[in-house]
Amino acid sequence: MTLAVSKKIREYMQSGSWIRRMFEAGIALKRQYGDDSVFDLSLGNPVTEPPPEFKRELLRLARDPMSGMHRYMPNAGYPATREAVAAQLREETGLPFTAGEIVMTCGAAAGMNVVLKAILEPGDEVIILAPYFVEYCYYTDNCGGVPRIVDTDESFNLDIAALEKAMGPRTRAIVINSPNNPSGVVYPDAALRELGALLHRTEERYGREVFILSDEPYRKLIYDGLEYPQIYRYHHASVALTSHSKDLALPGERIGYVAVNPGYKDRAELMDGVIFCNRTLGFVNAPALMQHLVRVLQDVTVDVADYQRKRDWLYRELTGMGYDTVKPQGAFYFFPRSPVEDDTEFVEALLEWKVLAVPGRGFGRNGYFRIAYCAEDRVLEGALEGLRQAARKYGL
After folding, report:
1. Torsion (CA) 184, 136, 233, 300 in degrees, nearest 10
2. Cα separation, 132 vs 177, whole angstroms
3. Which of 28-42, 149-163, 331-345 has the lowest mean pLDDT?
4. 148-182 burial by CB neighbour count: b if 16+ within 10 A, else e?
5. What's the whole-number average pLDDT of the chain?
6. Which residues contact 300 (CB under 8 A, 6 or more apart)?
7. Which in 135, 342, 384, 394 has the greatest CB count within 10 A?
8. Which segment of 18-22, 181-185, 362-366 scores lowest on mean pLDDT?
9. pLDDT score at 369
10. Pair 197, 210: CB distance under 8 Å
């Protein structure tokens, strides 16, 4: 009998996202025990409300709408919005960005898909650093590519030696995500310089360009006064993909952009390809209303200090219980080592105390688990008892 879905998709669905699986388990627990008795740290779905500037601009547009503001626009987005993004990037990077290097997209996920579709030949390899956001593998497959997983080191930083071994004649791109989901690590300047030098050597050796695709939804959520290392300075063929899901707390609005390095010599052709794929993959254009809104919000961010407060408090609590974890430098996740080798066993044990986390294997790194601290304080506080009981159970 013919299956309703393809064999490949059936397999992907069976091995698919642990994040969504735990989120759905949380829904079931909440129905059984009530919302206040379940402590869901599984999904990076910020409870922080958008900044007041967003609400003011939304009300202004609702009260005084522009003629035609909901119609089609160029597939790359409104010129004024693209120029506003470029102006902010000029200020942040010191590079001569123009609207011609920007494509507005339906979030960073759409941006990743359209860029991969534009650059990959069938069978090209895309290096993905573990731990990673699991959808990267599916995005690569969507576009005919082959994921090549390379572990980071014990501190979740770039392992340049391992990357050099993984580079080959079919290598076309490397995806980096900094601040990283799930570890919260920000890749330092020195490591990114080494990566740029490695890609230059690889290009010389095999005679083809290798792109850095930098997934940056957490770029503005950085702690302790760290400066974000802008990827463009490290490699000519570099493209950033970002969204306003986290920095403006708008995950459901699906608004972001692609930014191509203004120093990349073939950027005009690449931009044409990205714009074409934005249309033909069915995204057509980024949401019109959100483009109007983020045009005036490029220098606005949610309260990062509040996330840092949560991080500092939770780090003290977790390490005090005996958990071994890297202290996040950005984003809003912890990725502690599991007290037992089987991280799914540990995550399932946490359900006894109605605490939801995600096993590390869901991010390509067995032996760890992820907790998202973008939740309300009461949820974080309520989860502590379960984490403490689990630590005792496993002898931390």
Report:
1. -60
2. 8
3. 28-42
4. bebebeeebbbbeeebeebbeeebbbbbbbbbbbb
5. 95
6. 51, 53, 54, 248
7. 384
8. 18-22
9. 97
10. no
For 212, the token pair is: 């850095």
Strand partners, 311: none
CA distances, 385 to each of 22, 310, 336, 347, 361 (Å): 19, 17, 17, 15, 24
Q: Dihedrals φ, ψ of 305, to 5°?
A: -60, -35
In angstroms, the CA 207 to CA 187 distance is: 27
Amino acid identity, residue 40? D
CB contact at 8 A, 126 and 141: no
Report the largest interatomic distance among the alpha carbons of the chain, rounded to a whole angstrom.
65
Question: Is-contact 383 321, C-beta < 8 A?
Answer: no
pTM: 0.94
Upstream peptide bond of 251 is cis (omega within 30 degrees of 0): no
pLDDT at 207 over 70: yes
Whether 94 shows a pLDDT value over 70: the answer reads yes
Q: Which residue has the tokens 């202004």?
A: 60
Given this model, what pLDDT does residue 1 score?
Answer: 62
For residue 327, give the amino acid letter: K
Amino acid at 159: D
